[in-house]
Amino acid sequence: MPELPEVENLRRGLERSVVGQKIKKVIVHKPKLVSGKGTIRSANKKKVQEFIVGLTGETFISIERRAKNLLFKLSGDKLILAHLKMSGQFAYEPTKGKKRMGGHPIELSENSLPNKHSHIIFELTGGTLYYNDIRMFGYALYFPSSSKFEKENHFGEYGAEPFSAEFSLSYFSKALKNKKSKIKSVLMGQDIVTGVGNIYADESLFEARISPVRSADSLTKEEIKKLHKAIVRIMKKATEVGGSSVATYRLIDKSKGNYAREHKVYGKSGKMCVRCGKPLKTIQIQSRTTVFCPNCQV
Q: Which of 214, 256, 288, 294 does the annotation list as catalytic?
């Protein structure tokens, strides 16, 4: 699943591609993707109809991001909340010019649009925007107004954005105080800091020299300070270079993010620590592969 740096770069690319364009037609091939956001979803004819009728004729005004979510703002105070989850992809094909796609790799998209994975299609004044998804865990939800969106409180349990003033050292220290879960699990939980997933949790903990299996409430003031600094630095740097293109993840222009070159532990199972030369260790935390240095990270 893409993390904050990847989603933010996708947002920027989509904004350059579709903002200012009017939606001429909306096609929904998989109704469940616009019917809800749970793991188990069923098609809702009313929501599909609202999605199609409500969006047709509107214009993309802006695209924002909250954690790993994309929020498309349209004319008429309407919104689309989208999440790529495990295999979602946005592909844009301008009327004139080359295809652009960002998200998880779908080989068919390189050669054929639409294809069997193109479940939502927006025909625009200057091209076509596709939402493709092999596993169909992602979603795109329609809201007729910003007040309706705010009322449903989708982001109510989210913590601070890592680049925001809210994510201060004081805030981070207080938030970790009573957390007894493993620190890596806490970082990936999204209720303290958003957008940090498997990649950047591993990298931040390595930089701060903290073992991922430590309980969050066991960290000292100095360790919390180091971890806070590592999260902010790594997330900023990763965002600047387009994120981490692992498993051939792509940005909207089909380019790769370059932060994977900076990885010290993520994806380095069986290799030696770049800091001490000792072998890295691989374990499972919340069913996610976790790589760390048992010698450097204590």
A: 288
